[in-house]
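quick one before i forget lol
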Amino acid sequence: MAALIFTVFAILGFKISTRKILLYAFELSLIIWLIRIFTVPGLHTLAALLGLVLIIYRQGKVTLGTSFYVSISVIFVLICAETFVHFTYEKLFGNVSSEDTFLWVMLGWPQIIIMVCLAFIIQKYIRPTFLANCNKKDCL
């Protein structure tokens, strides 16, 4: 969750402390974990999306539409990274079983690394280049 929050705020160009990122990540993870235990599988993604939208709206002081758009974009990138990692693992080693908890956790690490790298690239290179090359009225 921390990687998602970091990526979202990198896209928005909003500086946020690591402490706040970790606090929001803990809150969001707790909500998602509780939903995973007590409800239908897959509903936790919707809860993550809505939680992320509210965090961005509250902390980033952007419109609800902007926070929704950025959240959906980041969740989409996460889903693509997750799909890529799982398909790659299945092609290399065979079936991925959610029963093997250690393996399931280890398959999440490449996605985290992808999201953090994406956030750093956006924060250091893409966003400054975009802002330097755009007209004030055309920029977000």
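fyi Helices lie at 2-12, 18-38, 43-60, 64-93, 101-106, 109-132.
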